[in-house]
Amino acid sequence: MADWFARGRTSLVGRLFGTFLRQSRSIAGVLVWIGIAVVLAIIVMALLAPFLAPFDPNTKVADPELPPGGPFVMGTDRGGQDVLSRIIWGSRVPLAIIAVATTISLALGLPLGLLSGFAGGRLDRAILLVMDSIYAFPGLLLAIAIAAVIGRGILNVSFAIAVVYIPTYFRVIRNHVASVKEEPFVEAAIALGLPRRRVIGRYILPNVAQSIPVIFSVNAADAVLTEAGLAVLGLGLPPGIPDWGFDISLNWQRFDASWWATFFPGLFILILTTALTFVGEGLNDILNPLLRRRETKVGAEA
After folding, report:
1. Which of 114, 157, 205, 301 is exposed most, by the fewest CB atoms within 10 A?
2. Domain extent at residue 167
3. Whole-prediction pTM value?
């Protein structure tokens, strides 16, 4: 029984962190490090935007639609604003959306998943019905509907995106909890009369937490694309705030005359989403025990 309890307490730190370090030189580990490096570079760019941006992103600095070259490395847009400066300042928007939206969805989806999976019965069915109803809607369509009602702004857009991803956290955590609570160390803790809150926090949560980094990174990538989609539809941020998605919506109709004003914001959206996807897929390959067993079996057979 002592071994069961030790397994419940040390699984998060011992197994997950240790597994990641052991697999850090594998293909999945390399993908994770590449993704982290790119994301950190964009974070640094966002933090140092006042020092890195050569011009004010909201000020006309030259003639409209100047091609890349000279002092304007990425050219100017249809308003005569420097594209590079708007990209540097605009990196703050998707990062802020990621931080707020994923925090809200995690703060609601995780406890609901823990409660539903551990309690079972009518409570589980009721919460599951609500979450499945939300999950049934296409994500972008649901975000559009919410954003159209509550209006523009970083907090409003973040909330609209967060609602879309709450069921994702809930479903994964709930299914994992339903499996882990049948383990001997959890049954032993319950049999000893430990409070449910202590059982969940000390023995169940560490064993289901391996799913959180994967869901977080994948949803972060989706949040970037969803925010860009809302901005293109005019449901994102106010015009005065530099935003990659807004720049695409502003300049895409002039793509033939000034392709750079649309191409470069779209390129940075692609870079950020790809980096976050690398992190998510790499962590999934490293932390998912089923995939690890499959790879080990294939390697042994080879």
Report:
1. 301
2. 2-301
3. 0.83
E strands, 84-185, where? none
Q: In the chain, how many domains are there?
A: 1
Please report, for residues 14, 103, 153, 175, 210, the alpha-carbon distance to residue 148 in angstroms, rounded to integers and kept in the order given: 46, 22, 11, 33, 35
What's the burial of 140, exposed, middle or buried (CB within 10 Å: 0-12/13-18/19+)?
middle
Place of tokens 């639609």: 65
Q: Which of 269, 257, 179, 188 is nearest to 222 (CA)?
A: 269
Find the CATH number of the domain harbouring 214: 1.10.3720.10
* Model confidence pLDDT, tens digit, residues 56-95: 999 888 888 889 988 889 989 988 999 999 999 999 999 9
> Do 273 and 225 touch, CB atoms closer than 8 A?
yes
Structural contact between residues 28 and 281, judged by C-beta atoms closer than 8 angstroms: yes
